[in-house]
Design brief:
Elements (H helix, E strand, L loop, with lengths): L16 H18 L3 E15 L3 E15 L2 E13 L1 H4 L2 H7 L14 E3 L2 E15 L3 E8 L31 E11 L2 E9 L5 E11 L2 E9 L3 E11 L6 E11 L2 E13 L4 E10 L5 H6 L14 E10 L4 E10 L6 E10 L4 E11 L9 E9 L1
Antiparallel strand pairs: 1-2, 1-19, 2-3, 3-5, 4-5, 5-6, 6-7, 7-8, 8-9, 9-10, 10-11, 11-12, 12-13, 13-14, 14-15, 15-16, 16-17, 17-18, 18-19
Length: 383
Amino acid sequence: MVDWCRVVHLCPFKYKKSFFGRLKSITLLFIPCLLFAQIDIRIENSNFTISDDSTLYNYNRLRLRNDYNKDNFFATFIGDGVNYYGKKYINSTTFSYLKEQKSDTPFATQTGFKNYEDGIAYAKLYRFYGGWEDDNNRIVLGLQNISMGVGRIWTPTNIFNPKNSYALEPDETFGVMALSYTRHINDTSHITVVTSQKEDDSFKSALQYKTFLDIVDVAIDIISSDNTQMIGYEIEGNLADTGVELRSEGAYIKYDSEEFTQFIVGADYGFKNGITVVGETLYNSKIFSYTELIENQSSDISSNMLNSNLYVALGLSKSFNIFLDGSLSYIGSLDDRSSSFISSTLSYTLNDYNSFSLGALIYRGNGFKDIGNSYYFRYGLSF
């Protein structure tokens, strides 16, 4: 276990003065409201013991979540204390790459890294936003998640918070500093407008119109920034009364001088015995080299830059009982049959506060250079 008393001396967040001033003013305005609001506080700790091809190490994330609600106003704060323990791992090339990952925001969302004996720790601002909503309108300002796309594995239209399906925690994404507004036109359609500020103080904006047409949900997405333009679509619906859910999503993307298209087609089906099957195929019109992927890690479209034209993904999950769940997923390139990714997880929920998981991440082929296989045990505690 990690001795947190040794690692509490973390560097302060580095905010730009103008942003900090605005944040301070907003905070002072909200303080009187807190006295009469409903506040929900949750704490979650995720502890992973991980073995990869070369070392054994521990990764721990302590998460504090605070949700505020009063009348039509709401706010959410999520902060993390993160620790890695294992001398060989924190000196590895893999961890050096991880340390370079950061949010594309006008202020730093994490502290500096604090070294202690055989470990490293830091604190991270994961989400921090507030807003107002009624039956027809919703406005949100702050460090938030902008959700776009219907894909389970890939989401070509989401260049705000794309998830990484090959990662240990695919849904853990950096937030964006954004102002978003949603207007419900009627019971079946709405329009959303988003503008976010990036690290270089430039802006990225989006417009989405989503509606229900007889049997399917349809959306049109437009995103624009200084060097990126995208127009895309989303379609999702059920196949008559079969229980099969179909979806498709696609995007035309222009980035500097590069132009390409991506789209996915997928389906889900849940059986009565607790088994759910997921399938998805991705087509990508342009192949990017390994060097291009490395050089464009911080670009808007880094998650869209792939080194194959065609991918397929299959997922299988099973709920054995109220305590035990299992899942298995496969992602493979049809251009390079030697490249594939397999993820498997077996989870046991003891009660509302304690859960345990065993998992494996298996990487094969040229598509995953310098990435080793990982096997892990996770203990989750929440209250």
